[in-house]
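Async update (no meeting this week)

Hi team, since we skipped the sync, here's where things stand on the single-chain job. The sequence we agreed to prioritize is pasted below, unchanged from the tracker. I ran it this morning and attached the output directly underneath so nobody has to dig for it. Comments welcome in thread, and please keep replies under the output.
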Amino acid sequence: ENLQRTIDNDVSTAVLNFKAAISTMDYQKQNMVLAETVYNQTKKKFEIGTGSNTEITSAQTDLITAQTNYINALYSAIIAKVDYQKAIGKL
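Output:
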């Protein structure tokens, strides 16, 4: 009975962690898309002479950060899925 409770708790925790990881991944993907849009608009402004080098550098840095955050969130979601599969005995 204690073992079953422990297993149930592990599965519940794994499910919650997986859902949270998916939510974070979705948020980071949206953030990355927004950063790409901002970068592209900033690049266009720079190309026509209305934007500064500082603006494009900042937008590029923000885009790289957003891409990195998305990749990290994707990795976390994969790990959470593996943890869930372990908890339910699939691995």
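Quick observations from my side:
The mean pLDDT is 97.
The helical segments are 2-47, 53-87.
Reply here if anything looks off.
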